[in-house]
């Protein structure tokens, strides 16, 4: 095992994970038809292992908790007989190649959505360079050019400057982030949230391994977000979570802590364990637990979407594991359309750009039907009907989550 695992001696920290529960729903706007709320479609897909295939994202930022949609200047009106101008903020000029790749994928996803819903929106593309100052400036420039809603930013660390600039212009923003503190006060998150994944995983676990669920997680900000999401979801699934062990995300940290967790797990009688890590960290955690007797077929292993990558087929210790991911059939259909238009695979984040732009286009379509010249208000974004997206029905909640 040591020969295999030495490559993770200095593991990089994870990308962003997301916040758990959705908040209260807002009141419907007069004249709009409403239906019941529901979570975005998720399924538990059986995979063999996990790999690190996600582009780097910024970590959580400290700011006030998510609140309702903010209001600064009055919402700008749009001409309903022409496409609405939509600001698209991505870090195409960031210094990090991973951020550049993520920006290109998101931008192309948004372009595909605009093309598939013709005549509804036109994209005003702006480069944030991955910096808060540039992100705020991009919003101001786009607003001056006539943009009526903001799509972006990608990084949670840029959300505060985007929020400030957008509020001053009376604009709402749909961010590509899943950083919890980036949500609220006029900013909504389009990223896949930890709470949705935790709900799906624990519903599955309650059927396969009722009773207790173990939790072995990295002591990082994303690991803590996943922990909190699982703890919040457990009562609703009729599960208790024990034992719970955090590990330093390094080779020595996982090696040292795994025996103690395995012993506690055996004593608890838990039939499943959640491993909310990704890439080499997840492979290390699963391998060491298997070495100490915790794994298939006696123990169900559960993971988050960030852990589900093409390297899954190479890790024996994760055979039979279950991961909460968007419906792969719908994702495959999107990938085929993306490939046909751009001549390449979409990568991991293109679908989020598509969903945000598609939601904006659908808001314009609804506004035309109702004669509403301000289609991007908080009540429009948090429409309980939601919006048809790549992975299913996307519903934004009034507190900025989805």
Q: Quote the distance from N terminus to C terminus.
A: 40 Å
- Residues in β-strands, percent: 15-25%
Q: Give start-end ranges of low-pLDDT stretches.
A: 1-71
- H-E order: HEEHEHEHEEHEHEHEHEEHHHEE
Beta-strand segment tally: 13
Sketch the major β-sheet: 6 strands, mixed
**Please, what is the oligomeric state?**
single chain
Which overall shape is indicated by the principal axes computed on the Cα atoms?
elongated
Mean pLDDT equals 84
Radius of gyration: 21 Å
In what order do the strands lie side by side in the largest sheet?
A: 1-11-10-9-7-8
Structural class estimated from helices and strands: alpha/beta
The helix content, as a percent range, equals 25-40%
- Helix count from the secondary structure assignment: 11
Characterize the structure shown.
The protein is α/β, with parallel strands linked by helices and 402 residues long. It is 38% helix and 16% strand. The protein has helices at residues 2-5, 97-116, 132-144, 159-169, 194-208, 221-237, 251-268, 279-291, 328-342, 350-370, 378-381; strands at 42-47, 84-90, 121-127, 149-151, 173-175, 187-189, 212-218, 240-247, 272-274, 300-303, 321-326, 387-389, 392-394. The strands form three sheets. The protein has a six-stranded mixed sheet, with helices on both faces. Helix 6 (221-237) links the parallel strand 7 and strand 8 (240-247). The longest helix has 21 residues, at 350-370. It starts with a helix and ends in an 8-residue tail after the last strand. The model is unreliable at 1-71 (pLDDT under 50).
SSE topology sketch:
Elements (H helix, E strand, L loop, with lengths): L1 H4 L36 E6 L36 E7 L6 H20 L4 E7 L4 H13 L4 E3 L7 H11 L3 E3 L11 E3 L4 H15 L3 E7 L2 H17 L2 E8 L3 H18 L3 E3 L4 H13 L8 E4 L17 E6 L1 H15 L7 H21 L7 H4 L5 E3 L2 E3 L8
Parallel strand pairs: 2-3, 2-4, 4-5, 5-6, 7-8, 7-9, 9-10, 10-11
Antiparallel strand pairs: 1-11, 12-13
Helix pairs in contact: 2-10, 3-4, 5-6, 7-8
